[in-house]
Design a protein that fits this description.
6-stranded mixed β-sheet; single chain; alpha+beta
């Protein structure tokens, strides 16, 4: 391939950005050149070949960072224009604002794509690491990879480089046994370390698994007591999950001796800190003698994230939607009698399971919550470190995409804040750190005891997912990961209008495009209506990079939290696969892909019309 002249200096980092070719290149006819033509060709040199250079350019990474910052500022301006449109109620102004909203969304998606890099570019450097560590430890190791093409933002990729390297090194040094030990346990002498990455619910999942000895929980318990990490009484009653989490304590190590590879007790606490600093989470599952699996969940990007805005004591706060499970509103008698107390901790019984509650006013030192006059309670159900808890707030404002800005030095040391943002009305809102808030309120232990299922032997069994179940008439039911649901709405049927061939409704100052699951194409070409309710439509609202989409369903069945194990894949991109939920076969929808595929024309999903 022809080399491309770089437009950056020799010490500057650059990325190769692919651009589509302008069209197919017709093959040239084969003609024998004459003597004059041959001499001219020698003078001119070889003709450039149509190669990858014609489709790629080198771009300074700093330029991409500046473009991303500008897009972030544009998103802020877009939010302000939309808020102004709500106040003015000028149809002409609103039409222009919607056009700006659409262009901004498409520009944002395009710039984010240019910053995306496959995780394989990081994994490719791990082969030598595994080989060197295995040689130093006298082990035989095979590294397997799956999902090398999974893309994520380059800033995220750089942030996980060191944690991932450390985890792979630990898997080879600590996790895998020597060939002699493996033969004695009936295993192959060659150990296996597997890396797997995939997208799920707007996040990237990375698994590092080995088929080694797993964690020696008895040794972890004794070493933790020796070092004073926990008391003997607490160690005796600690669960497997709690004991496994002790390996992330600063300075903790069970190695018998210090080597050049490990044993100093530094690293795992730094790994967890680095992962959590980018809004990620780390979970661990181990089976003694069978191996260990570490799963990392990280966001696709850090610059622009969807968030829920809430009000508390007259202040506005934002909560990243990746931590949001559902919203609960208690009124009148339910608000007074629905809150119980167990060992001094307020809890709410949500579908038969106890949910620890945290009052945001108390944790942030705001004015006390009114007592006697309080007749409405808003509970934001959140997830942190694999556990759930409810956050009591005054009001639920809205969901929107926010641009994350660093906080000032005055609040940098407060673990409850992850950043700040500017809202559409010009107000500054602090972004809550859900994990830091849960740790400060001391609800993680209570949540894990009251909410966790019976101890599972695999990570998949322990990692449940909240799924919204909806009905699509006689075609069965569908499941939607709750992380991709912004709101559930009932919309009057007479509010539905048409923009070209698409059905839309004016919704919160924007145009909400409707995609139907309930309407089937009738023989006369008209759309049939839902028999459940002739006056109102049940709509699942999704907010993503491409804008709003409303999924029209027959009815909302339930919200369940179960392990989402896809047992059958689908050829349709808008269907993640098939799972068994509540004992019934359920297709799982990908609303992000459905929003994309339904935009230009009706999708191929049976019963779906845009």
């Amino acid at each position: 391939a022809t080399d491309v002249a770089p437009i950056v200096g020799p010490h500057e980092e650059a990325m190769v950005v692919e651009t589509p070719a302008e069209g197919p290149v017709a093959p040239a006819a084969t003609v024998s050149p004459g003597p004059a033509e041959t001499q001219a060709a020698r003078d001119v040199g070889p003709a450039p070949r149509q190669a990858a250079a014609d489709r790629t350019i080198r771009v300074d990474v700093g330029l991409l960072d500046r473009l991303m910052n500008l897009v972030g500022e544009l998103v802020l301006a877009r939010n302000q224009v939309l808020a102004l449109g709500d106040a003015r109620r000028d149809p002409t102004f609103n039409t222009t604002a919607q056009r700006l909203n659409l262009i901004t969304g498409e520009l944002q998606e395009g710039v984010m794509k240019t910053r995306m890099q496959p995780i394989g570019s990081l994994w490719s450097k791990l082969h030598r690491l595994v080989r060197d560590v295995a040689t130093a430890c006298g082990k035989q190791v095979r590294l397997e990879m799956e999902g090398e093409g999974t893309e994520l933002d380059r800033s995220i990729l750089e942030a996980i480089r060191d944690p991932l390297t450390h985890l792979v090194r630990n898997a080879v040094d600590h996790g895998l046994e020597s060939p002699e030990e493996r033969r004695g346990r009936g295993k192959e002498p060659e150990g296996v370390v597997r890396l797997k990455a995939w997208h799920e619910g707007g996040q990237v999942n990375i698994e590092i698994a080995d088929d080694g000895a797993g964690l020696r929980l008895d040794r972890i318990r004794e070493r933790a007591v020796e070092r004073g990490v926990i008391s003997r009484q607490d160690a005796d009653v600690a669960t497997e999950r709690e004991l496994s989490g002790l390996i992330f304590e600063p300075g903790f190590s069970t190695a018998a001796s210090v080597t050049s590879v490990s044993g100093r007790g530094v690293g795992m606490d730094v790994v967890r800190t680095n992962i959590e600093s980018i809004g990620g989470a780390l979970d661990i599952a181990s089976r003694e003698g069978r191996g260990m699996t570490l799963r990392i969940k990280i966001p696709l990007t850090l610059a622009i994230v969807p968030a829920l805005t809430i009000d508390c004591a007259g202040q506005r706060y934002a909560i990243p939607q990746v931590n949001l499970l559902e919203l609960v509103r208690l009124e009148s008698a339910d608000a007074r009698s629905g809150i119980e107390s167990i060992q001094g901790t307020p809890v709410y019984r949500l579908r038969g399971r106890l949910l620890p509650l945290v009052d945001l006013r108390d944790e942030l030192g705001l004015s006390p919550r009114p007592g006697a006059s309080e007749i409405v309670l808003n509970i934001v159900v959140l997830q942190a470190d694999g556990s759930r808890f409810g956050l009591l707030v005054d009001q639920i404002a809205d969901t929107q995409e926010i641009v994350v800005k660093p906080v000032g030095r005055q609040v940098q040391d407060l673990s409850v804040y992850a950043g700040a943002t500017i809202l559409g009305d010009g107000r500054v809102a602090l972004i809550l750190d859900v994990l830091g808030l849960a740790q400060r309120a001391h609800v993680l232990d209570e949540a894990s005891h009251s909410l966790s299922e019976p101890e599972a032997s695999t990570l998949a069994a322990a990692d449940a997912t909240s799924v919204l179940l909806v009905s699509r008439g006689d075609q069965g039911r569908l499941g939607i990961p709750l992380s991709s649901v912004a709101r559930l709405e009932e919309i009057e049927r007479d509010r539905v209008e048409h923009a070209g061939e698409a059905e839309v409704v004016q919704y919160r100052g924007e145009l909400l495009r409707l995609v139907r699951l309930t309407g089937q194409q009738a023989t006369d070409g008209t759309r049939s209506t839902s028999p459940a309710d002739d006056d109102r439509l049940q709509v699942v609202v999704h907010s993503g990079p491409l804008g709003l989409m409303g999924l029209v369903v027959d009815s909302i069945i339930d919200i369940v939290r179960e392990p989402l194990l896809l047992q059958a894949e689908s050829e349709r991109p808008e269907v993640l696969g098939t799972a068994v939920l509540q004992g019934r076969v359920t297709e799982i929808l990908d609303l992000i892909e459905l929003n994309r595929s339904s935009r230009p024309r009706a999708t191929a999903l049976a019963g779906v019309e845009a």
